[in-house]
Every structure is written in C-alpha cells, then in structure tokens.
Amino acid sequence: MKKMGPNLTAPPGDGSNDEIPEDKNCQLPRMDGFPDCMGKLKWMNSMWKSDPCYSSYGVNGSLCSFIVYLSEIESWCPLLSGRVARPVESYKAEVKDNFEGLHRSLVNKTQFSWIQQRIKSMEEIWVEAGRSLSQKYNLTERRAKQILVHPGVITNEADLKIAENAFSGGPLGELVQWSDLISTLHILGHNLHLSASEGSLKDTSDKLFTLIAQTTFFHEFTVLKTSWTDYRCIIRVLDSFGTEPDFNHAVWASNHDLKCPFGGLSLIPMQFYTMFPHTPDNTFLGFVVQHQLSSEEHEQLESTKRQNQALVYGKRATFWQGKEAYLDIIHKYLDIHGTVDDSALIPDYVKNHGIVKGTEVQRLLRQSKLFVGLSFPYEGPAPLEALANGCAFLNPRLEPPQSSLNSKFFKGKPNTREVTSQHPYAEAIGEPYVWMVDMNNQTDVERAITSILNHNIEPYLPYEFTCEGMLQRVNVLIEKQDFCSAAPSWPPLSALRVLKAEAGVSCKKVCQRAGLVCEPAFFPHLNNDKNLASYNVDCQTSEFSDKYIVLPAYNSSSKQCLFQQDPLLFSCVRSDQSLVRICPCRDYIKDQIALCKECI
What we know:
Elements: H1 37-47, H2 52-56, H3 63-73, H4 100-106, H5 113-121, H6 123-136, E1 146-149, H7 162-165, H8 173-187, E2 191-194, H9 198-202, E3 210-214, H10 228-231, E4 235-238, H11 245-248, H12 250-255, E5 272-274, E6 283-284, H13 295-301, E7 309-312, H14 324-331, E8 335-338, E9 351-352, H15 358-367, E10 370-372, H16 382-388, E11 392-402, E12 419-421, H17 424-429, E13 434-437, H18 442-453, H19 467-480, E14 497-501, H20 507-513, E15 517-518, H21 523-526, H22 529-533, E16 541-545, E17 553-555, E18 560-564, E19 580-586
Parallel strand pairs: 1-2, 1-3, 3-4, 4-5, 5-6, 7-8, 7-10, 8-9, 10-11, 11-13, 16-18
Antiparallel strand pairs: 11-12, 14-19, 15-19, 17-18, 17-19
Helix pairs in contact: 1-3, 5-8, 6-19, 8-19
C-alpha cells in the first residue's frame, strides 16, 4: 500500500504513481457510502490543472482543496469535519465579461486552433452581446452547469482532417458552429470541459448536466466507464443536416430499409441540434454570422467603398468547373473576384485573392454588390455573411431538388429532406436580398443581376444569427429544455395550437401555412382521446399502434383515432394518404424560430 496522506491509501492492486500530497491540516472523515472517493482524489491529483474551472472553485493542489471540491461542488466524497455543503447560490452562473479562463483551457490543444482563432476574433462582440442580453433579461438566478463538449469531427479517431485543413481552404461550417457554441456557453457562465480524444473522455467526470458531441462520437462510448443508458437523456448531438425520426429509430430504420451511417441512435429527435432550422423534429442550435467587427477591424474597413464587382462563393477550384457559361454572363455586368485555392482552374478574368482570413473576406463582401452561388457547397454560413455586409446573394435553384434519395453528397444522411436551392434558409428570405436563378438560363441570370444593380441593398441579418440571438436561444434551451423528465413542462402548453392536416399533408406544412411551426414536444399531450376531445376531435374508437409514423391521426371514414405507442416515432415531417394528422403547432418570435413568444 502506498501512503497518500492522513488515513489515505491507494486501493489494493493499484499500480499508479499518482500519490496525493500529505496534508496535516486535513482530517479525512469516514469513507462509508462513498466508494468512488479514493479514485476521484487520485484523478484530481493528476488532472486538477487540466481545466481552469477547478482553480476557480479553490482547488490549489492540496489534499484539502481536492476533498472540498469533491464533497461540496460535486458529491463523490464526504464533507470534511466542521464544513457544510455550499448552497446552490454559491455557484450561480454569471455572465462573463472576458475569455481569460477559456483561453487557458485551450492552450496546447492544437485541434482547437482554428476554433480559438475565431473566438479571439469575436471576443469584444461576444462580451458586448452578453452585457446587452443581461440588460434585457434577468440572468442572475441560473445555476452553473458542468458541460462536456466533445467535437468528434476534430478528433484523431475520426480522421477527417478538418482541424488540420481549416487554414488551407477546408470546410469550416462545423468549426464555426463549435466555436460559437463554446463561446456562448462560456459567456453564459457555465463550466466547460473540452475533449478532443478518446483519452480525454476517460478522464471526464461522470456527473455532467450536458454532453455535447457529434454522431462521429458515439463509437467512443466504449471508452467511458458509464453506460450509454446513463448518458442518454443528457446528450445533445450537433447535426449539421438533421436527423428525422424514422431514421433515428433503430428498429424502424432497420425494418423499413432506412439504415445509414449516422442514424439509428434512438434518441429523442429534439436532442439533435442543427445548423439551420431544417426540420422542427430537431432543435435549431445555429451559429453566429460574423459581420460585426471589433473596434480595430472597424477602423481598417471603415473606408471600404462598394465597387461594381461580384465575389464568388467557392474556395475549391473544383466547385467552379462546368460553371463557365454562368460566370461569363455575370462578367458582362460585374468584375469577378474569388478566394480560390487554384487560379489555374478558374476563368482568366477572375481576380483571385487566394485563401484569405475572415477580415479580408469581410472587406471583399463590403466592396462587392453580389455574392455568387455556384450551387455547391450546400447550406454554409457564407451567404448570410454576405447579406449582413450588404451584398446580395445569387442562389442557384436545384432541379430536381437534392436529397439522400438522389444525391451522392446527401446519401447516408439520416433524412429525406429535399434541398431546393444551394441555400434553402436564404431562399426563404427572398428578394431584394436573395435572388433565385437557374444557372443554365441566361435570361433568368441577367434579370436577377440587372435587378440587383438597380437596388441599394442594406445590410440584413436575422436576430437568431447574431451573438445576442444565439446567447438568448442557447440560454433558454439550457435552462428549460429537459429530456430527463417523464413530464417536461417546456414549451408551456399555453403555446399549443392544434390543427388538422388533410390526408397526404405533413404537420410541418400545415403549421407553416398558418404562420406557425410544428412543436414535437406537444405530441404526447395530443396522444389520447380525452385531450383530443377538447380540440373537437371526435374519437368514436381509438387504438395505440407503432405501425405508423404520422400518429396521432384520425381516420375520417371510420372516425377512429390512432395514437402513437412509441414516443420516438412522433414526426412533424411525415404524411400519409389515408390519415388526417392531428398537429401540435406553436407561434415563434420573429427571427428567433426556436422560441415561442411565451418560451423566454
């Protein structure tokens, strides 16, 4: 046995050299009822410097400080003699006014290099947004959560090279979302534990409020000491393109030939957090469009004047191939600029700036009148950055619409959502900011360009894509969205509006027609004949079934109500030609679609 301090010895058979320093001032209480305390003390001795949140709670490397933390902040050890448990108020979440602690936790984490660079470039804007939100809402009565953030996309195990290629023209969409989520959680005052490898997961505390990861992460549960079941309800999955309920349900997906690499997790569909509000079955997390500038950057760009030029959306020269006729039309009206990795593969008349930093992209957008879509990449941040800088977006239609059923890019994605243009969210914004074009129709392209040149496009950005909008949305989700309770109380039932969708129409569509959104959290309330009767649905007979994904529904010929037996099969997006769907709709705050008017 190795001596580890007063009355403190290592567990039998333990071969670790991580001795805990002796502390004569620390009399340990009896360990009865705390079987994990010894192991946690050893872990803390080795790892307390790994995260700045430990020192913020007074952990300083001494045995006493370890025990105080593990007994009063967490509950792995007994209280020291003469001490009492801290009240909840002693560790409230406080809106941060700096990023000092977060930067310390990112030191020497090379996989987070691009993420940290983006965070640094937006520090001033995030801090100001936190102050602004605090002035509008009472954010003082919140408890600081322990949140594990594991971006599976940048791990060595995933081997996607996204972190390595971020500075040389690689895809940035997911890294943008991760950096903005990390910034949001930090500003809101929560305790972040950042992980980018299987090894770091092994050292993670077992008691966390939320575990945020990606579908690439789930094979790594084998390295954790706690089972999948223990983690299930606290998981949030960042999911760029969305996961629909029938793909998510492992048995249903298998029985209906919907199996794919990223499906079958059998989570509650709203545990999937998307980049855009693709489907109401998932939760819209979003990101921030980087349009606001720090004071120094603002001075650099203040003299930028709008020129008769267009900037093309496409860093890879391969995106430009086959688009020459389309670009030739645009070149008749505007000088064309690009930020492309290979000048040899693009038209000679293009002024190529190469792969540049974000500030330079902002300058080019502020100089340009038009941001030109090439039909790919799909659904990235850049078109919204263009609108925020007063630059119109030329958005190519996709004919036929692209989906996992007909597109190599979307094949394997756990949904059948049809993408009708390069950027469906921007498509919904419409003119004069976003102009839809058929790239192969010269008349259509010229009509859009001449109209744009006759408009003075003012900067435009929906609130949900600003720093303050993201802080508001994520704060409400953290405080109120609950997947662990058998009877969650949010969104409030008072927001429910019940509509019937005729046969063959989805709840998503019928809610949209009424200026509302489908709210899957309300499906359980509608899933019985007593509650449906209060909404004038006459169920003369009823039956529970797990054979449909459009329930609850009504058969008008037999006046029979069908109710959903399996709650994971509730779906906003599916329809059936023989059944009338009973749909839970709600209102939403303008430019903040994730939240109803009574949700904050």
